[in-house]
Each structure stands twice: as structure tokens, then as C-alpha cells.
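Internal tracking record. Fields below are filled automatically when a chain is submitted to the structure queue. Please do not edit lines marked as system-generated. If the sequence contains nonstandard residues, flag them in the REMARKS field before resubmitting.
Queue: standard
Priority: normal
Entity type: single polypeptide chain
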Amino acid sequence: MKIYTKKGDTGKTGVFGGKRVFKDHPRIECLGALDEANSTFGLLRAKLGPEHSWQTNLHRIQKDMMNMMSHLARPSDSNKENSNPRPTDGAEFCEAWIDEMENAMSSPSDYFLLPGGNEISALCHVCRTQIRRGERTLVTLFREDPESVPEYIAAYINRLSDLFFTMARAEMGKHGVAEEKWNLFLYKRKKKVQTK
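SYSTEM-GENERATED OUTPUT FOLLOWS
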């Protein structure tokens, strides 16, 4: 079977259940943004090397992303069932990993940081910003077809950006790279004003 079908030459593509929509449809925009983020997760894994301690968790996240995208590809009016696994514990999985990394760090994450540091931490920030864009397109899809965006997917995608921010900090801390701080998080600034 050939990789090309020529069916998309007129600007439309298929979604779960057989329906065809334009390639700039909110569902396709969302799937494309999440696919782009997942590809960058793969680049991060390649840069880390096969023996890195993050590989197992990142591998799980990549598979979860594929499963979530397969569910998001199904409009709520589709009669066709999706048998792919549902990673309903994704947000909790991210939180546990974030807590583990933060507990190993010498200081809490109180500041917005300039993205960078070293190559791996900078790439973690690219992952963070791409997943944020994916989240924005997910919200657009939710507004169009709320029933096709399960709550566990929205929570998981939201938590991933926090995870990659923490991974960037952990990588910098591991290699003794100083964080370039910009401003305190807003809630920290308010707290600081209240204590004066």
C-alpha cells in the first residue's frame, strides 16, 4: 500500500468515523499542534540518549499523546467506537513526576525564566511552548464540539506544560547552569506585597 492516497489534494482530510473536513478545521488544527509537540518530545528523547532516566516516562507520554489524538480525531456524532487506551491518570502521572523533580531541587519554582540554559533545557522549553499551543487549539475544539474533548485530556495537556518547565529546571540544576530569572510568578508577587 502506498503512503500517498491523493485524497487530501483538495484541502480535506478524514476524521474518525469517515467524515471529511477541511484541513484548517479546529479538530485538525488541534491534532496538528499536538502531533508537532509529540514530534519534539521524540527529538528530546533522541538528544537525551537511550540510557537517560527520563526515557521511560517520556516514552509513556508519547504513547499517551497518540492515544489522546486518536480520541480527539473522533467527532462526538461519530458512531464508530475507539478502542485505543484512555490515559485517564495522565495529569496525576505528571504531578507525581513534577513533585519528584521539585523535591530533588534546592529551590522552588517561584520565577518566570528566560528559556535557555543548555541544549536540553532549551528543548524542554520548546516542548512546553508547543504543548501550550496545543492546549489553545484544544480549547477551540472544545468550544466547537465539547463532547469530543474528555476532561482527562484537557487536564493532561495542561499539566504537561508544567512538567516540561520543571524538566528544564531539573536539567539546569543537574548541570549547575544558573537560571536567568525574569519576574516572580504573579501569585508570588501578590503574596510578597501582602506580607510587607
